[in-house]
TrEMBL record:
Keywords: 4Fe-4S, Iron, Iron-sulfur, Metal-binding, Repeat
Ranges for domain 4Fe-4S Mo/W bis-MGD-type: 8-64
Family under the similarity heading: In the C-terminal section; belongs to the prokaryotic molybdopterin-containing oxidoreductase family.
UniProt protein name: Formate dehydrogenase subunit alpha
Signal peptide as annotated in the record: none
Protein biosynthesis listed as a keyword: no
Transmembrane residue ranges: none
Length: 685
C-alpha cells in the first residue's frame, strides 16, 4: 500500500484457501499482486475475509516456486523440458498399462484444483487410461458427509446456505472450530450469538466459540454417535419433535426409537463423559428453538464411524423437521478445502461420475461414453487408502497426484511413503517441492488459484468463478493444460479447449450442473447446485419439493455407538486430536511462505497443564509424541483448551509431521481416516 505506483487493475476471484469461498478483489500493480481486499458485495463473505485469504498471497512468487518440469535421473530430480517430461510420463503409463492393465494406474485429483480441472482429470483417467481408480482428498475429510447426507436426504451437499443462518435462534455446532478453520463463518456465528441466538458446541476442546456457548458438550474423542443418539433420545422423550413432518416426510422412526432405547442419559454419560445435566440442557435448547441450525465439521466425519456420525447428527434435524421446509436452517457441513465439494461434484471419485451418477449404472455410462467417444470402465476403482495398500501389494504400479502432499497430509505417513516407493512411477503436479514431490519420478510445475480460470464450489454448494490475476511463473502450467498436453502425448484429445467448454460439457452430462456456464456465472453471479437448466436459478435450500431419496422421504438412521479404532491404554495413555490453526492452511506449503508464518513459526503439542506438570513439561520444551504408527518431537504448549488425557496438534509443518502419528483406521463406510482419535504416549524430548 505504501508503493506510490498506481494500481494497474483488479481481478475479482474466489479465495483458494478454505471452503467458505470468499470473493476477493485482487489488486494488481506491475503484473504482481499489490493487495487483496474482500469484495464488499460478495454474498458469502459480505466484505469480510480472514488472514489467509487477505494476506497470505506472497507464496505465489516465492523463490522456491517450481517453474520447470523435473525428472528423476541418477536418483536426482533434474530440470527438463515439458516435451521430455510428458513424453517420459506417457511412455511409462503406456508400458505399465500394457504390462499390468489400466487398473494398475491411479490418480489422486485435487480439492485445490478447479471444477474444470477435476472434470478433465476424471475424464482423462476414465477415457485415456481406462480405469475408475481416481479419488480426491474429500476421502480424507467429508466423504462421510457425502455418504451420510445422501443416505439421509438423497443429495451429497448441505441442505441450506450460509445466509439461512441469519434466521436461526440456535446453532448446534459439532466437531468444528470455524474461528480458526473457517474464520468468516466463525465470525458469522459469533455475530449470531452476540445478537441473542443460542449456541451449543459439541467438541472435546475448549474452542473460542465453545467459550461463548450456552452449553459446551466436551465429550470424549470418538463418542459423537453416542452423544447424538443421547440428544435424539431426549428430543423424543421430551416431545421436541415435529410429529407431522415425521409422519408425512420421514422414514425410520420405529427403528431409531428401538436403538435409542439403549441411549438413556446415564449410559450416554458413561460413554461420552458428559453430564446428564449438560446433555439435557443441550437437548432443551435445540428442542425448544424455533428454527435451529446444525453446522458441523471434520470432528464429526474423521472417525472410524464418521458416516454414522453424520447420519445420527442429521437425525436431530429430521426429528425437529428443520430440513426441506420453508424458512428452515437445515444442516451445513463445513467443507475444508476451497473446492473439496467441487472435486467430488465433478466425479473425481472411484464409483461416481460427475453429479454423483453411479458408475455401475449402464445407462449413465452409456450417456457419458456417447459424448466422450470412449467407453467408460464399469468396475469401481480404488479409494485413496486402497491405492496405498495396492501399491504396497504390487497391484498399483503408477500413482499420479495432482496438487496434494499426501506424504504430509494423509494419515500414517510412513505407510504412504512406503507405498510411493513401491510404485514404478509417481507423478506430481505441485507449486513447490513438497515431501510427496521429493519422492516422485516426475514433478510438473503447476499454477495456483491466482493463476487459474474456472470455478470452485464452496461449502454451501455455491458455484463461483475463479479468474486469473497472474500468469504462472516460468514454464509452470495450470493442471488443466498439463492434463490436455499429457493426453496429447498419449495420442488422445480430451476435447475441451478451455475451462469454459469443459464446464459446458460437464453441464450437458450432469443434471445438477445443467444450467451452469461461465457466461451465466459472469452475468448472474454465483449459483447453487442443483441448477438443472438455464431458465431456473440454483437452489440455496434443498428438498423443499421432496427429498431426493428413492421414496422421497428423509431417512432417520438407527446407528448404535461403536468405539473408535484406538482407545487410550497403559502404553499409549493420551488421545491425540488433530486439527487446524488460524494462520496456516493444511500442509502449510502456501502459508508458510508468507508473512503469516511469523505469527506461528512452528507447530506445538497442546497439553493440559496438569498433564504437563506430571510429565515435567513446560511451555516450549520439546515433547516426544509416540503412537503405534510413528514418533514426532515438537514443542509443548500448555493450555486448558485440551482436557486432561487429551492432546492436540495441527499438521501445518513438514518438520513436525503430525500425520506420522495418526492411524490407518478408517470410516467403515467411506474409508475416511480417523484423524481425530489416536492413542499416543508423551515423554520429554
Ligand atoms: Fe479464504 Fe476461507 Fe479466509 Fe474466506 S474464510 S478468506 S475463503 S481462507
Amino acid at each position: 500500500l505504501l508503493d506510490p505506483r498506481p494500481l494497474t487493475g483488479t481481478v475479482t476471484t474466489t479465495c483458494g484457501y478454505c471452503g467458505v469461498g470468499c470473493t476477493l478483489d485482487v489488486h494488481l500493480r506491475g503484473g504482481e499482486v499489490a493487495v487483496i481486499t474482500p469484495t464488499r458485495s460478495a454474498p458469502v463473505n459480505r466484505g469480510h475475509a480472514c488472514i489467509k485469504g487477505r494476506f497470505a498471497h506472497t507464496f505465489t512468487r516465492a523463490d522456491d516456486r517450481l517453474t520447470t518440469p523435473l525428472i528423476r535421473r541418477d536418483g536426482q530430480l533434474q530440470e527438463t523440458s515439458w516435451d521430455d517430461a510428458l513424453g517420459f510420463v506417457a511412455d511409462q503409463l503406456t508400458a505399465i498399462r500394457a504390462q499390468h492393465g489400466p487398473d494398475a494406474i491411479g490418480m489422486i485429483s485435487s480439492a485445490r484444483a478447479t471444477n474444470e480441472e477435476n472434470y478433465l482429470a476424471q475424464k482423462f483417467v476414465r477415457t485415456v487410461i481406462g480405469t475408475n481408480t481416481i479419488d480426491n482428498c474429500s476421502r480424507l475429510c467429508h466423504a462421510p458427509s457425502a455418504a451420510g447426507l445422501t443416505a439421509s436426504f438423497g443429495l451429497a451437499g448441505g441442505t441450506n446456505c450460509l445466509d439461512d443462518l441469519d434466521r436461526t435462534d440456535c446453532v448446534l455446532l459439532a466437531g468444528a472450530n470455524p474461528t480458526e478453520a473457517h474464520p468468516v463463518v466463525g465470525a458469522r456465528i459469533k455475530q449470531l450469538v452476540l445478537g441473542g441466538a443460542g449456541l451449543i458446541v459439541i467438541d472435546p476442546r475448549e474452542t473460542e466459540l465453545a467459550a461463548l456457548a450456552d452449553v459446551h458438550l466436551r465429550l470424549r474423542p470418538g463418542t459423537n454417535v453416542a452423544a447424538f443418539n443421547g440428544l435424539a433420545r431426549l428430543l423424543l422423550d421430551h416431545g421436541h419433535i415435529a410429529t407431522d413432518f415425521l409422519t408425512e416426510r420421514a422414514a425410520g422412526l420405529d427403528e431409531l426409537t428401538a436403538v435409542l432405547h439403549d441411549y438413556a442419559p446415564e449410559r450416554v454419560s458413561e460413554i461420552t463423559g458428559l453430564t446428564t445435566a449438560d446433555l439435557t440442557q443441550a437437548a432443551e435448547l435445540y428442542g425448544q428453538a424455533t428454527n435451529p441450525a446444525i453446522v458441523y465439521g471434520l470432528g464429526v466425519t474423521e472417525h472410524a464411524h464418521g458416516t454414522d456420525g453424520v447420519r445420527t447428527l442429521a437425525n436431530l434435524a429430521i426429528l425437529r423437521g428443520t430440513v426441506g421446509t420453508p424458512g428452515c436452517c437445515g444442516i451445513l457441513p463445513l467443507r475444508g478445502q476451497n473446492n473439496v465439494q467441487g472435486a467430488s461434484d465433478m466425479g473425481a471419485l472411484p464409483d461416481l461420475l460427475p453429479g454423483y451418477q453411479p458408475i455401475t449404472d449402464p445407462r449413465v455410462r452409456e450417456r457419458f461414453a456417447r459424448v466422450w467417444g470412449s467407453p467408460v470402465p464399469e468396475r469401481p476403482g480404488l479409494r485413496i487408502p486402497q491405492m496405498f495398500d495396492a501399491a504396497v501389494a504390487g497391484e498399483l504400479r503408477a500413482l499420479y497426484v495432482i496438487g496434494e502432499d499426501i506424504a504430509q497430509s494423509d494419515p500414517c505417513t510412513s505407510h504412504v511413503e512406503h507405498a510411493l516407493r513401491c510404485c514404478d512411477l509417481v507423478v506430481c503436479h505441485d507449486l513447490f517441492l513438497s515431501r510427496t514431490a521429493e519422492l516422485a519420478d516426475v514433478v510438473l510445475p503447476a499454477a495456483n488459484f491466482l493463476e487459474k480460470d474456472g470455478t470452485f464450489v464452496n461449502f454451501d454448494r455455491r458455484v463461483q468463478r475463479v479468474r486469473p490475476a497472474l500468469d504462472p511463473p516460468g514454464a509452470a502450467k495450470t493442471d488443466f493444460d498439463i492434463l490436455r498436453h499429457l493426453a496429447h502425448a498419449l495420442g488422445n484429445d480430451l476435447g475441451c479447449a478451455g475451462p469454459a467448454t469443459a464446464m459446458d460439457e460437464c453441464a450437458a452430462l450432469t443434471p445438477t450442473f445443467g444450467g451452469i456456464s461461465h457466461a451465466r456465472l459472469d452475468h448472474e453471479g454465483p449459483l447453487h447446485w442443483p441448477c438443472p437448466d438455464t431458465d431456473r436459478p440454483g437452489q440455496p435450500v434443498l428438498h423443499l419439493d421432496g427429498f431426493a431419496t428413492p421414496d422421497g422421504r428423509a431417512h432417520l438412521a438407527a446407528c448404535p455407538y461403536l468405539p473408535p479404532g484406538e482407545q487410550a491404554d497403559a502404553e499409549f495413555p493420551f488421545l491425540l486430536v488433530t486439527g487446524r490453526r488460524l494462520v496456516h492452511y493444511n500442509t502449510g506449503s502456501m502459508t508458510r511462505r508468507t508473512p503469516d508464518t511469523e505469527l506461528l513459526p512452528a507447530e506445538t503439542l497442546d497439553v493440559h497443564p496438569a498433564d504437563a506438570a506430571l510429565l515435567g513439561l513446560t511451555d516450549t520444551a520439546p515433547v516426544e509424541v509416540t503412537s503405534r504408527w510413528g514418533s514426532v518431537t515438537m514443542p509443548t504448549r500448555t493450555t486448558r483448551e485440551v482436557s486432561q488425557g487429551q492432546v492436540f496438534a495441527a499438521f501445518h509443518f513438514a518438520t513436525t509431521p503430525t500425520n506420522a502419528l495418526t492411524s490407518p483406521h478408517t470410516d467403515s463406510a467411506t474409508g475416511c481416516p480417523e484423524y481425530k482419535v489416536t492413542a499416543v504416549a508423551l515423554r520429554p524430548g
